[in-house]
User: What shape does this take?
Amino acid sequence: MSKTMNDNRLHGDPGIADTAGQDGRGLSLEMPKQRDRAVTIFEKSKAGRRAFVAPELDVDAQPLDDLIPARMRRTEPPRLPEISEPEINRHYKRLSTRNFDLDEGFYPLGSCTMKHNPKLHERIAALPGNARLHPAQAPERAQGALELMYELQVALGEVAGLPHVSLQPSAGSHGELAGVLLTRAYHEDRGDHRTKVLTPDTAHGTNPATVTMAGYEVVKVGTDPDGGVDLEDLRAKADDQVACLMLTNPSTLGLFDRNIEEIASIVHGVGATLYYDGANLNAVMGISRPGDMGFDIVHYNLHKTFTQPHGGGGPGAGPIAVSDRIEPYLPRPQVVQGDDGSFVLDYDRPKSIGRLRGFQGNYGVFVRSYAYILSLGGDGLREASETAVLNANYLLARLREAGVAEYLPVAYDRLCMHEFVLSGAPMKRELGLKTLDLAKRLLDFGFHPPTVYFPLLVDEALLVEPTETETKETLDAFADTIAEILREGEQDPEIARNAPYTTPVRRLDEAGAAKRPVLRQPL
Amino acid sequence: MADASYPDDLRYHAEHDWARVDGEVATLGITWYAQDSLGEVVFFDPPAVGTTIAKDEPYAEVESVKAVSDVVAPVSGEIVEVNPALGDAPETINDDPYGDGWMVKVRLSDVSELDTLLDAAAYREILD
Assistant: This one.
């Protein structure tokens, strides 16, 4: 980008339409003529306009009172937008282009595993037997669906190295809550009333939130200089009041904790359970199993590791797998196979923590994840993880080149797993650019930014997870773009400070959104 | 937003807090570095007047667009006043961290604790 862009068109009021072109230069091509004005479908409504006109009635009319009793009828019509079919089409088509999604570009959002979602899975999920199955269908008439769920349980159990699986939880955080409630049920059943749960200071924010929601006190455990759990701190805090340690391995620093056996021994030594946050399972499938490391409870994110499309708020699935000693407390019903080979819903679970959601969970997610597991097989899953780790290390190596590393050094200098953390602290100090500015500028180059300002213990953190489904060319293009933005920042940091320029909306007022949220659309 | 500064008349705690001592009462807040690291503050959750706080322990929370963070007490004592302006305008912590962005006033329970705090030069050294 040329220096001549640095004029007040670039720095002026972001709400003003671009007036470039008056000088007759091609510069304006890089700038939006006018940013998208947000118009809701309600604002487009015109009284009396219709997208559909019902045909004339060609049967005898029946009195409305015979069809719906007056007391059950609404007294005024619903306030729905009145709009023509072409306008509806244009409205939603336009909206669909305003979001950034994985089918549009590289999305290296750390700890979120934004991998490609194979389109084959959509075909299978759309088969009528899957898509049109009613959730209240009697089990004997839904044997195929129950078999799929049962087989998925078996496969997931194999990946985790823990034999008992419940598919009910419908998000990672939901799986976490299930896991901590299982921990509580396990301890209380033995008359052991414990009060605290340990989480490392690198943990996902959902971990301490889950602990609080489940009625325990959160106790933070520190990180050692190597990026792993601080064993001394863990020993000091592990006592007979500790119910559980929630751990992500590899951690949110993208590092495998080499002391995991020692950690398991300390935690089990005080009678606590060891919980595996599966957000980073994409690094270790078929290579190491949480159950073999000593974990008692694992949650999976089918929408991360097992290719359910995500990023727009769901639906997801956060199944859990547990060891023998936790099994009696699993949610009910469980999908089990009877002696005659048929599949049934087993409600006879007296020690169960109960039901965690309606029906059997997000079935469409199970179909896609099962298709993924069958497509790849055990060896394929391992290869996916190996490639994810290779891609991350390749990208990290590219970002350690001169021109980048002095501004964005790696936070912990080790081989990484499937993701890695850079610190933007030198960039902020030397160029006056915050990690947020870099992230926003990436949008102008067609990349979704990595996770920023997490994990919290790394100053100006940038958490990058490329996943296994990206090509070398994409990784190179991303690394080149980071280098280019830094070079641009050396010349003129104002450009990144005011980014993005090419998105439907520009720099958002995050503080305003937090302090003065607009929660209702006036009709 | 104000430029980086660390006034010489304040005492500092390594967790990026400052104390302005006036007899037995100290005014507390967070440093320029702390507010800059947090980004724009959107919520301040103060302790109640009358609460006892302990040196090195969290006594309040600040929420920014990035994270919710504990505010650590540089001294022990009893809260005698909370800055009422921060309820409606928590961003004052960013705009004027040593002035209108003060957080609480504390009646000191142990004046000798002040000796453990840093002067501006020593605090700057931590930041470098």
